[in-house]
């Protein structure tokens, strides 16, 4: 007799397959054409074929995920302890304990400076998937066998959430979907959490704000509604400045970009390099400067929407003077505003250049003050003859400084020689593609000149600014 353990899974056939963070495989229905109904939280999805064992497994794990949702969102530490299996590694259990602690109700002072995250939606559920079945690793399965587990499963799971709630209804962000795999084990009629993708030898799922200890939250009203500032321990100086600077920074970005973005944001101030690294892990669509990075979960280009955008500040932000922090904040907000209209591989000379232009606008009176390294190069007879390539922006000292200053100065040149409306038009055309031919056409459409003429005019402008 073939063991069923670790080899069966529900196929949610009528749902759309989500590809975010998931490698798809081939799969299909079995020979039966019967149809059953499986509850996945608040939704009901048809599955084919109707297999009693498979259906009971899906229903049992759905109850586990519902209980996990309730325990985390209620800050119920005892419930977390009951839901996590004894074989789980401490780091896995600590993740849920930390999340529950950050969700626990706390006294609210009324000034919105020490609250907790508010959610319009928050739930864990089984994910629709067509991936090939993943087996529980042999070493993990051995531990479960010894403990008396009657079944185990690598379950495809989604976390679906959106910030919002009673205190922050204006956040109203698009739903964020985070996919993962949970190893779960059955004991009698109960299922328990054993591990996640990391237990399967894969990369851990992206760290969420509430999965790091010591989280606090402040709501700030900006032009588009409620913005959120989250922070951890020992970040108070930066926090105070961010709360004060954010409304004006949103207005400054809107003055350039217009009202076609949300005009609100989620900012995160970190207190250690480890916190920053976990929140901006590779693969999260990171763009930004040395003092901060903008991450996002998903971009829907046809609908011009982006979900899960967060501006994450390094611990060094605590040491920045308020005017410098304001430049960084406006720069990153420009990325937020433009994200849904920016190709994933858009050239950095336009994306970083325009962000720098918006960030620095009105902060200098002399060109050398804004671009000291570029000024020195031009004075030495090294006027740029080409736009900086993406590799030049790597954070490696003077080279990256010249790349950023060159990109900024190109945007400043276009705004000065033409106007800001045409600078935005240039961005929308060039940043929409990685194809050099289409970029060339976009330059011609926006400015009426080709790339070579644009670069030549920029060089002459630079030499005039330096003189």
Automatic annotation (TrEMBL):
PROSITE patterns: PROKAR_LIPOPROTEIN (PS51257). Residues 31-48 have a biased composition (Low complexity). It comes from the Bacteria. Residues 29-48 are annotated as: Disordered. This is Lipoprotein. It comes from Gordonia amicalis. The lineage of its organism: Bacteria, Bacillati, Actinomycetota, Actinomycetes, Mycobacteriales.
């Amino acid at each position: 007799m073939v063991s069923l353990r670790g080899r069966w899974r529900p196929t949610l056939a009528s749902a759309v397959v989500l590809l975010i963070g998931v490698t798809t495989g081939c799969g299909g229905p079995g020979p039966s054409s019967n149809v059953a109904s499986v509850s996945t939280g608040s939704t009901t999805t048809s599955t084919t074929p109707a297999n009693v064992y498979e259906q009971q497994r899906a229903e049992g794990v759905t109850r586990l995920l519902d209980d996990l949702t309730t325990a985390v969102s209620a800050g119920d530490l005892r419930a977390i302890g009951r839901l996590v299996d004894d074989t789980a590694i401490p780091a896995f259990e600590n993740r849920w304990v930390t999340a529950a602690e950050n969700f626990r109700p706390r006294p609210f002072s009324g000034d919105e400076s020490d609250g907790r995250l508010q959610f319009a939606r928050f739930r864990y559920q089984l994910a629709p998937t067509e991936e090939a079945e993943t087996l529980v690793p042999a070493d993990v399965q051995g531990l479960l066998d010894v403990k008396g587990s009657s079944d185990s499963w690598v379950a495809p799971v989604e976390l679906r959430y959106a910030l919002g709630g009673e205190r922050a209804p204006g956040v109203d962000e698009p739903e964020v979907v985070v996919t993962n795999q949970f190893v779960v084990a059955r004991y009698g009629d109960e299922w328990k959490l054993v591990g996640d993708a990391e237990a399967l030898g894969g990369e851990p799922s992206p760290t969420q704000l509430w999965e790091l200890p010591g989280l606090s939250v402040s709501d700030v009203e900006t032009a588009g509604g409620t913005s959120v500032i989250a922070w951890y321990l020992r970040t108070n100086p930066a926090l105070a400045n961010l709360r004060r600077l954010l409304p004006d920074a949103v207005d400054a970005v809107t003055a350039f970009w217009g009202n076609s973005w949300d005009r609100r944001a989620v900012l995160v101030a970190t207190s250690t390099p480890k916190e920053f690294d976990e929140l901006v892990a590779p693969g999260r669509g990171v763009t930004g400067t040395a003092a901060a990075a903008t991450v996002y979960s998903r971009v829907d280009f046809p609908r011009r929407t982006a979900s899960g955008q967060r501006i994450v500040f390094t611990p060094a932000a605590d040491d920045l003077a308020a005017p410098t922090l304001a430049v960084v904040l406006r720069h990153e907000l420009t990325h937020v505003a433009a994200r849904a209209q920016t190709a994933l591989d858009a050239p950095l000379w336009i994306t970083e250049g325009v962000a720098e232009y918006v960030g620095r606008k009105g902060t200098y009176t002399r060109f050398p003050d804004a671009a000291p390294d570029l000024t020195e190069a031009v004075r030495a007879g090294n006027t740029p003859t080409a736009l900086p390539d993406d590799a030049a922006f790597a954070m490696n000292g003077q080279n990256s400084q010249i790349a950023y200053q060159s990109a900024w100065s190109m945007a400043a040149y276009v705004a000065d020689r033409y106007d800001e409306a045409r600078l935005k038009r240039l961005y929308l055309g060039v940043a929409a593609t990685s194809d050099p031919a289409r970029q060339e056409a976009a330059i011609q459409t926006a400015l009426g000149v080709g790339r070579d003429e644009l670069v030549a005019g920029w060089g002459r402008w630079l030499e005039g600014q330096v003189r």
